Amino acid sequence: MQVLPGWIDYNGHMTESRYYFANSETVDAFLRLIGAGMEYVAAGHSFYSAETHIRHLGEARLGDRLTGTPAARAPRRRGACPALFHGLTCQPRRVRSA
After folding, report:
1. Taking 70 as the threshold, does the pLDDT of residue 94 lie above it?
2. How many domains does the chain have?
3. pLDDT per position as a tens digit, 56-85
4. Which has the closest alpha carbon to 22: 71, 90, 80, 73?
5. Which residue, among 9, 32, 13, has the nearest Cα to 66 in the 3D structure?
6. Domain, as residue range, for 28
7. 87: how many CB neighbours lie within 10 A of its CB?
């Protein structure tokens, strides 16, 4: 995805809410990839975020191309939920990781 003019704050960087949006798009794409898309939800199932953390390791600017990279960790104990980690990169530099 590309950083659009409406995503930029008064400092010339991507706004915090758009980092959440970009990460949400990455998660949605990952869920579709593993078969948990809209059909999965229509069948009464769901995934949701119980906790979110952002680490800003850089800044995205107008016109930058962002790529989301998901990674999952299996539950640590029976009945626990898997953990999903994802990062955003801006070619060729790293923008942030969550």
Report:
1. no
2. 1
3. 888 899 989 998 888 777 778 887 777 778
4. 90
5. 13
6. 5-97
7. 18
Indicate the residue type of 12.
Answer: G
The residue with tokens 């078969």 is 35
Helix (H, G, I), strand (E, B) or coil at 89: strand
Can you tell me the distance from the alpha carbon of 74 to that of 80, in angstroms, rounded to the nearest whole number? 9
Q: What is the pTM assigned to this prediction? A: 0.75
Looking at residue 38, which CATH number applies to its domain? 3.10.129.10
Per the structure block, which two tokens stand in for 37? Answer: 């898309």
Of 4-8, 53-57, 62-66, minimum mean pLDDT range:
53-57
* Those residues with Cβ within 8 angstroms of residue 28's Cβ, 6 or more apart along the chain or in another chain: none
